[in-house]
Design goal:
Number of strands: 6
Structural class: alpha+beta
Order of helices and strands: EEEHHHHEEEH
Shape: elongated
Number of helices: 5
């Protein structure tokens, strides 16, 4: 049964809700379309535009069994950002593009851009979050709610 963007299904005596496939594909289509129509904007503009959209989408679906969907969306958004960066510099190599636009750390490759604070002082890098959202207090994707409730209450 599909309801409010969720697919609800009974399986093995449990009720699971996952993001509806059509809604996920529609969301990714919108992200890709925006990147294709804005090939010349700076990385700061891409991050400031996409971060609230990614965060809002992930927060809406965070209460469902969405670990695989979040991983898929994260991968697809990264591929769209990679294609956007390559499209900006067709005569440059992939290594050059990677060092200019992306930062590699323990969470994977993320889009980076130098930002300044209100006083104009360099404040480091802003990153596109790509749906890497912590799901509530003490609850991360893939953890069970029951286990984390025990941790949060000290039981």
């Amino acid at each position: 049964v599909n309801f409010l963007g969720f697919h609800i299904q009974h399986f093995g005596g449990r009720c699971f809700t996952v993001p509806q496939k059509e809604k996920v594909l529609s969301f990714l289509k919108e992200v890709r379309a925006w990147l294709k129509t804005h090939p010349t904007v700076k990385p700061e503009a891409v991050i400031s535009h996409l971060n609230p959209i990614l965060r809002g989408w992930a927060n809406y679906y965070k209460h469902s069994a969405s670990k695989r969907v979040f991983s898929y969306v994260d991968d697809q958004v990264w591929k769209a950002l990679w294609a956007w960066a390559l499209r900006r510099h067709p005569n440059k190599g992939k290594t050059w593009v990677a060092t200019k636009y992306f930062l590699s750390d323990s969470t994977g490759w993320t889009l980076k851009a130098a930002v300044q604070d209100r006083n104009g002082v360099s404040a480091g890098f802003a990153r596109a979050q790509c749906a890497r959202i912590h799901l509530g207090v003490g609850l991360a994707r893939g953890d069970s709610i029951r286990t984390n409730r025990r941790r949060a209450t000290g039981q």
